[in-house]
Amino acid sequence: MKAEDPFVSIVVPLYNERESVAELHQELQTALGALGRPSEVIYVDDGSRDGTLDLLKSLPDARVISFVRNFGKSKALECGFAQARGRYILTLDGDLQDDPREIPKFLEALEQGSDLVVGWKVNRKDSLEKRFVSKIANGMARAIAGSAVHDMNCGFKGLRAEVAKNLHFYGDMHRYLPAVIGAMGYRVAEVPIAHRARKHGRSKYGVWRLFAGFFDLLTLLFLRRFFDRPMHFFGLLGLALNAAGAVILLYLTYVKLAIGESIGGRPLLFLGILLMVVGFQLLSLGLLGELVVRQKSGEIVPIRYRQ
């Protein structure tokens, strides 16, 4: 880090949060001023349509990045992380529910050696629907992705710069950042934080996002376990289907040869053939995947290390 670079960068993704921006910026300036360390605030406007960008441009001591349309929170975070210059990078939501006065907790945990620090909203001030959906999502994430944090989707997080800049998001994978970073071999910690009720606007989180998040979670699970060894996934399925098809065809062979019954019109015959064909296709797909991985292994699975 250069001498003139900030100690901490705050990245705030925003989408239609005009009513909250001015108050949030004032709170951030107060909290960062109390640190007594160089800092910067980066707002990423994700294609807002309510005038959020116009208000952002009028804020003092703020860097503003604007998307021409809504690309989603994952891309907003990735862009903000890429532009941040601080040793540590913190991100929080722009709806005033995260309290900037909690920033020192994240910095303390990061300086103690953590690579990612996740906020834990012990006493949530959200609606019953949002708490219910979040509880289900966090439960599924812990069970499937193996993350130990209580609130994986908490928007208040802190990262080391070298970790944040190695992240490449797609879809809505920002929700599972602790699982992603944990799978990369980095150290993940959490700190209890205060949480506030939403003052302006409406929450963009609902039941429908639970289903979208479930598919993202399945994608994450696949990538964590089979991204660099596709044959372990497709090969296992292919062998299982081949085995089932072989059992069916052997049974029908016995029926034909030992009992003498006709099997040409039996649906079971077509099922057995179908299982064998699909099984061989999956095995072939696994082999092709292995060839691609071996050809680009240096690009796909970078080795993480510390000096």
Radius of gyration: 25 Å
* Amino-to-carboxy terminus distance: 16 Å
CATH C-level of the largest domain:
Alpha Beta
Largest beta-sheet characterization: 7 strands, mixed
Q: What share of the residues does DSSP label as strand, in percent?
A: 5-15%
Rounded mean pLDDT is: 85
- Overall geometry comes to elongated
What helical percentage do the residues reach?
40-55%
Q: Supply the helix-strand structural class.
A: alpha/beta
Question: The CATH topology of the largest domain is what?
Answer: Spore Coat Polysaccharide Biosynthesis Protein SpsA, Chain A
Q: What's the CATH superfamily of the largest domain, by name?
A: Spore Coat Polysaccharide Biosynthesis Protein SpsA, Chain A
Summarize the helix and strand pattern as letters: EHEHEHEHEHEHHEHHHH
CATH architecture descriptor name of the largest domain: Alpha-Beta Complex
- Secondary structure tally: strands: 7
Give me the side-by-side strand order of the main sheet.
3-2-1-4-6-5-7
Number of helices: 11
Question: How many domains would you count in the coordinates?
Answer: 2
List low-confidence stretches. none
